[in-house]
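Q: Predict the assembly, please.
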Amino acid sequence: MFKGWKKLIGLVVFGILALPGIAIAAGEKAAPLVIVADTRRFTGWEAWFTDLYNESHLYFTLLTVVTIPIVGIILGVLADIVMSRIGIDLKHRDLAEH
Amino acid sequence: MEFFYVLMPISGVSVFWPGLIILGLGVGVIGGFFGMGGAWMITPGLNILGFPMAFAIGTDIAHMAGKSLVSTMRHGKFGNVDYRLGVIMIIGTVAGFEVGAQMIMWLERLGKVDLYVRWMYVILLFLIAWMVFTDVRKRISKEKEAKEAGKEIDKLATGIEWHKTIHKLPIPPMMHFKAAGFTCSIWIPIFLSFLTGWLAGILGIGGGLIRMPMLIYFVGCPTHIAVGTDLFEVMISGLYGAGTYTYKGRTELVAAMIMLVGASVGAQMGTVATKYIKGYGIRIAFGIAVVGCMISIIMKLIPSYVAGTKALMDMMSTVLILGLVSLLSLYIAFRMVQGARREVAEKKRRS
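A: Predicted assembly structure:
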């Protein structure tokens, strides 16, 4: 059974990676417009950031896809800590209704 | 005042950052509570903040991926996510979405289809709202009948029971979904998720708004499991969507991060609120959100028939959506705080 699940998950991952035209959560298709960020207005990390965007959308995408979940997890854990300190049980739900 | 504005590195416009946090917070609360991304609520808010629309969808999807991750983690701990069902449904959703997206491109080549697609969306939302409120009405009458007979209604009783008939379809292989608590043919969630994916592809939406009722009324998930499992799907699709939109250069990452600060707190609040609100409470609030979305789309359709009303209708639809977001998120936050205070007081009394 476990082997079957591994195959299934592999298939899903393959499906997602193999169909780059799909943006499941997407709205309208983006128009073929090239946007260039103005690097002259920035210094430090912001200048690096805009440079990265202008030079390689691929690296900028990798940065986005990695950063978003990490920041999500960090903020989620912080909110967890605050809520646990208040005294809310964050592991059980008593309500069992349809 | 300059402190309250942040210069966006890619688009080069200054945006009022507390507005982004508040917007993220509001939509985060609703998303964590209903189990959806809520793109239809964010775009009007970004528009008001003067956010460049070329980056709206990508930025929205990027923050949505992070927010859904937070909610899924929390729902997972509550036991609200049926991962097996979620993974199976992704197959159907991906395939359905691709077919729907290809179909709409084909239709666009034949002629202008925008208007028809919007009307189709309105009809679909009307059917969902009808389904939700019919279910609520039936459940209330069942409760009344049970009370009159001096009995108590079964906690798992529902108004609409279509899923019970669907579960009886004997098409092998059959599969048991532990968290959702039912056994059915594996083809049922695959087919239904294909259908919702197809509709989402045609309508150009994320699909949370149609997947949630499908999970409840056709797949037969308890409300809380439907919310958690849907968020699991939104998380994966959101991350994928963020990747594709960013690759097209249409994501303002700094704005997404700022929104995520509010959204991750909001998502936690919305998710924890499901602890204190019964399944039918969630369904009613969801039905109200669907009606709001439907009215806002009708408002956007009116200028196609009545000339000179576009500006007015755009403004009214924005006011309606943002008002709805504010009211719903305040209601959910209020119920969460109320429930948490009760829980903490109970704990103190016991100890």
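Residues 33 and 274 of chain B are 6 Å apart (CA to CA). Chain B has a mean pLDDT of 90.
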